[in-house]
Amino acid sequence: xxxxxxxxxxxxxxxxxxxxxxxxxxxxxxxxxxxxxxxxxxxxxxxxxxxxxxxxxxxxxxxxxxxxxxxxxxxxxxxxxxxxxxxxxxxxxxxxxxxxxxxxxxxxxxxxxxxxxxxxxxxxxxxxxxxxxxxxxxxxxxxxxxxxxxxxxxxxxxxxxxxxxxxxxxxxxxxxxxxxxxxxxxxxxxxxxxxxxxxxxxxxxxxxxxxxxxxxxxxxxxxxxxxxxxxxxxxxxxxxxxxxxxxxxxxxxxxxxxxxxxxxxxxxxxxxxxxxxxxxxxxxxxxxxxxxxxxxxxxxxxxxxxxxxxxxxxxxxxxxxxxxxxxxxxxxxxxxxxxxxxxxxxxxxxxxxxxxxxxxxxxxxxxxxxxxxxxxxx
Amino acid sequence: xxxxxxxxxxxxxxxxxxxxxxxxxxxxxxxxxxxxxxxxxxxxxxxxxxxxxxxxxxxxxxxxxxxxxxxxxxxxxxxxxxxxxxxxxxxxxxxxxxxxxxxxxxxxxxxxxxxxxxxxxxxxxxxxxxxxxxxxxxxxxxxxxxxxxxxxxxxxxxxxxxxxxxxxxxxxxxxxxxxxxxxxxxxxxxxxxxxxxxxxxxxxxxxxxxxxxxxxxxxxxxxxxxxxxxxxxxxxxxxxxxxxxxxxxxxxxxxxxxxxxxxxxxxxxxxxxxxxxxxxxxxxxxxxxxxxxxxxxxxxxxxxxxxxxxxxxxxxxxxxxxxxxxxxxxxxxxxxxxxxxxxxxxxxxxxxxxxxxxxxxxxxxxxxxxxxxxxxxxxxxxxxxxxxxxxxxxxxxxxxxxxxxxxxxxxxxxxxxxxxxxxxxxxxxxxxxxxxxxxxxxxxxxxxxxxxxxxxxxxxxxxxxxxxxxxxxxxxxxxxxxxxxxxxxxxxxxxxxxxxxxxxxxxxx
Lengths: 378, 509
Fold this sequence. Notes:
Helices cover 68% and strands 5% of the residues of chain A. Chain A has helices spanning 7-28, 30-36, 45-56, 59-76, 78-87, 89-109, 118-145, 172-196, 200-230, 249-256, 258-279, 286-306, 332-342, 345-360, 366-369; strands at residues 149-151, 157-159, 197-198, 233-236, 243-246, 364-365. With 509 residues, chain B is mainly α. Chains A and B meet through helix 4, helix 5, helix 6, strand 2 and helix 13 of A and helix 2, helix 3, strand 2, helix 11 and helix 16 of B.
């Protein structure tokens, strides 16, 4: 059945699947955002513990989604995996280091005799939520601003700068993208606290933090939007596969694909409504709108980069080395097999949702942290 | 190969070995202990006995501490294929990526989702759903082992793929053949059963310590009996599929088998070396003895390799230089056709680029004739086809010796438990405590055999490690190597510190 589809359809389908996973990851970075709130929004040790325990019940899902994002890209777009991870070596390595630090921090922070001290693990969390997310944003930014690499006849990558990916963080657009994601994650993290924690003072502070972080995110968002509609883009000729620079390419993509424009606008409105509902209307459900909106914005961004005859991983050094969803993908056979595998995804989402319902039926309170299992808490 | 490329490759290998070995300190305990905890909790739910709940929670605490650092050291393993083995990732990504994605979808999410219930759901979920979640974590973690081992097995015995010269990569032809290849099945059963064995030794080791200290004696004895039972069953499996695995290696990776036994000259009635001191100066093709001292048991290697005591087993020299009497084509000869394949592939690419259709077709025809030896075309001397013999030999023998010792320990524990005198066997508690550390040694040694013994290949016969790595300055890889070394070591120290403290605290009232 799936095997009868044209390979181009499968490539587009897999770009969509990868975009969904990537966008879900962006939504789940509320965990990273929450981690950066421990030094500002929490006013004492108890509030800090509440934040960490609230995030601590979800952090593995964010982490796993990132791993799945990597796995899906490897399976569906191996040339991207080989080119970007191997070429932009340092930016990915630094991102990974921050996630290594995060993975132990929840479990070890409060455990006696943890050698490095609670403060160190808190700093690990903060670094993961700030530097880690900033660099992920910078890496995603290169989908639009391009990187300096060439591919030889064997599709082996040579990176043209000795910085191996660090140069991405020096580009204004990429930097704005990274900072936007950091403040968006903080906004989401604060909204998550409002809905999941039973503690009057902390919730009050989180409502305030929701608004403040959105305000911080706004200038970077505007910079990204301005950049997107004005910058030159990397257009692919569908007949020959030749890549050329096109003025206003992403603006053309937005106008040419109204569904993407609609996703972007609906997503932004949804996030802003979430913040308004949390900060001004006293509601707890803001995170739902914020999370959904983030997914929609993510889908719009990935669609802009990959669809509409666009090179999603452009090369500045050699335009013809640029990666498109057509030249970077797996074989038709592999994409077909993986499509059957992907039928399992809704099932996974269903049990994740069920478990969340069971675990989130009651808000987290100080009483629970001090209860029977107090020594097992994060 | 230029010096800088060689340095890049070797630092990349060192980094992979470092991160994999660190990761493997924690994974087997996760795989095995998750099931032991599921057993403990099942007994609690069935009997309603609160002391079993306390016991469950104690082991769960140790599980959590170990799990976190397992996750931390694991994330790099997935991305490292791209960062450090970029050419590899492109050349075989069409095949290798799929199991990793499947692992993410079907295994990691099970673990990640139900982990929170297992640790924080005692008050939030029903008793039944909590137990279900504990089982799901155990199943999820073991499922994740399935897929990464399928991928590893494919690297060792590549199958069900075809080379696409236009893309310069291998492409998948049949997913089921990859997922269910005999090597994948052996790898999975051998690795997971060895993980159950290690977890059993872990539980028995700490229980032994409690008995020595006269603390938590009832809990310790109960834990010991459940663990020894699982350990004994696991030992039988480990031995059985270890034997299957050796049989398979003899046919698909004969060089690895020869290195495992330090066998340079092939022979009938080939012996295994029960104990031996390797001659480090020995190289393929020279006349030096392979061992300074050795005790051999004739015929056993032939039996292991071919199920026949009198059969012929090829040695390293036969596989390097060939042996016409035995119809063995050596690396030396395969290099000749491999170099033709490499050259014709290049000619094909150039001809395609310049639009020379006839030239491209001619080059492709020659390439196809020689493509099975493609990997050998990248070697510069036939001796490079041999793995490090001493490392493979010693690792294999350490693994076998310990694998023989462990079931004796499990049997002893069960024997005294059955007699009702486990509480007075002080010597056995010491043995159990020592077994904890030996389990880790055996487990690491197993992977050293598997990965060291297949050098120089990233993909057996098709892609040597020297061609698989990323084109990046050696200094960058060297830097990340040392960052990983420092970071993982710091985290390991912290992990041990926390673990020891929790063991001191013991199951709380």
